[in-house]
Structure formats: C-alpha cells, structure tokens
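INFO batch 0412 | record 1 of 1 | parsing
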Amino acid sequence: MGVLISTKNMNKNYKDIQALKNINITIVPGTFNVIMGHSGSGKTTLLNILGLLDEPSSGEIYIGDQPVSDFTNTQKAKLRMETFGFVFQSFYLNPRMKAYENVMVPMYINEKYKGKDLKHMALELLSRFGLAERVNHFPYELSGGEQQRVAIARALSNNPSCILADEPSGNLDEENEKIVMDYLKELTKQGKSVVVVSHNPFVETYGDHRYYINKGILEEKTNGF
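INFO prediction complete | emitting tokens
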C-alpha cells in the first residue's frame, strides 16, 4: 500500500511560538486517522499543513514520494482541488447560494466534472446526510448542524482521495454524528484516506490510527498508551 501524505521532522513556528514540533506522520490510502487534542494543541495547524493550506517552517511534507517544496503554487492549488476535501470548523458556506449550490462549487471548478449533471450529484449527496428536504434552503435558514452536514457534503462532492476534517461532529446531535462518522468510515473501504482532528472520544473510536497532540508534540496512541 502506497503512502498518500507523510511528513518528516516537520516544525511550524509563529514568531516565538513553536506550534508543531518535529512531526512525523504517514497517511496511507484506505485508513481512518484521528488526531485528538485540546484547543490550542496544534491539531488544526497540522491539518492545514497536511492539506497544503499552510507551510511548515522547517522539515518536509510529501505527497507520495515527492516533497511539496518542489511544487509550484499552481501545482499545489491543483492538488488541493483534486486530491483533498476539506471540512472546516467554520463552515464557509456562501450565504447567497442554496444548500445544493454550495455543494456544487468544488465540481464547478474541476474540469473532470464538465458536462455532468452536477445538481443531481449534489442532491444525492445531501440526501445521504438527511437533507433532502433542505436542498433549496440558504445557509441562514439552516441550523448549525444542518450547515455542518452541507459543508461535509461539499467536501465530498469532488470525490477526493483524502478527506481532512476539523471537528466534523462539533455541531451535530448524536444521531447525525453517527451518520456522518459511519459515512466517512465507509469511504475508507473505497480506498480513501480520512484525517479527522477532534477532542470527541466518540470520534476516536473510528480511528484505524489514533494520535494525540499536546503542545505541538504528536504521538501515536496504542492500546497501552
């Protein structure tokens, strides 16, 4: 099994604060990876670097066996669009677009979806998350949990190889939390990688690989950890 993303001795500094310290992590296809940590532990910073939304101060991140430092900004943007699906803590839904239109956005800007029925694909995704009756609603007409599910559907709409999710269950009730986590777990059976950062013990139970980050230091958890 090949490696999708890996880091080697990676550090991230913000002025006099070292947010990440000597991070070594390997993400392979078909795995569910959970990074647990308290607020301010560095987990969101790590997720952003893995998704090429930020850069390390030192060390290296690899896509396959290629160092990201070799890529141009255009190449990195293409990778972000085609390889990753992002679920942010702040949903970043366009307030002027209906739910299904928000889900269509990643497909609009991806050439491989040209000529396809994007609306049908968006409606199907929203239905899987129990939003069939809310597809024509604007974000302000949706609850926080519904907005969260729209954001998750949007992250999956371009069929990414890797889903990077920051607290994806944060605004969900127990029923919808399980629906979302079960669906993400199912994606790993299709060979996709899932990386979730959370402080929720329920989310941790889904992990094939479980990590704990504290003060920028990452350790993989084992049964005896």
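INFO post-check: The chain is about 30% helix and 25% strand.
INFO record closed
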